[in-house]
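Structure representation.

___
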Amino acid sequence: MLHVVPVSTSLSSHSSIPVPCSSKARFFKERDFVPPGTVLFQQGHPTVPQFRLSEGCIALSQTLADGRRQIVDIVGPGALVGTVLGDKNRMTAETLSYCHIERQHGDDVDKTYSAICEAMKRIEAHTVLLGRKTAPERVASAILDLSERFSRPQRAHFESRVFNLYLGRGDLADWLGLSLETVSRCFTRFKRAGLIDFDEPEIVTLLNTPALQAIADGAASA
């Protein structure tokens, strides 16, 4: 069940913002901890104050006229989230894990500009992914991208990389413009080829990063 957390923009930066979460009232503070499945802001609703994600994973998505969802980006620790142009949100932000968030104040122009530049780079890369890459290339690219941002600390001599996959297979499908079945087949194929491993869907180990990178770049077939 999703928890909708609307945030008022009219209160000062030193006050807590009362908001309903499920059937209980809660507060969106200067720094807050929110559970997975929380909608932080919604497409088409009035904009909210920007915030920085210090820990966790958030999906940014748009809903099409027919109700289908397209995940535009997946953001991780350090990302600045929120609309900076216009008076309405262009996307919906939903937490995919427990998240620590901190309100961002408008006087920090440099951080806002850097965040916009980083978001534009990711949007450009995702446009190429959706427009030109095959299904295995898309899934391989997503695995590499997510592993870089959500990998667990490993000892230096370990060649494998373990990361939390906060997205379900359906989320990945909505992000990569594929069907759930296609995403699942690619994961199974990569596992059988010895490129990745997973005993649980949400914990993935990269076993052969160069080979996976070759697939993502279109230099090898899965």
Q: What stands out?
A: The CA atoms of residues 100 and 135 lie 33 Å apart. The chain is about 30% helix and 30% strand. The first strand starts at residue 3 and ends at 4. The chain has a mean pLDDT of 78.
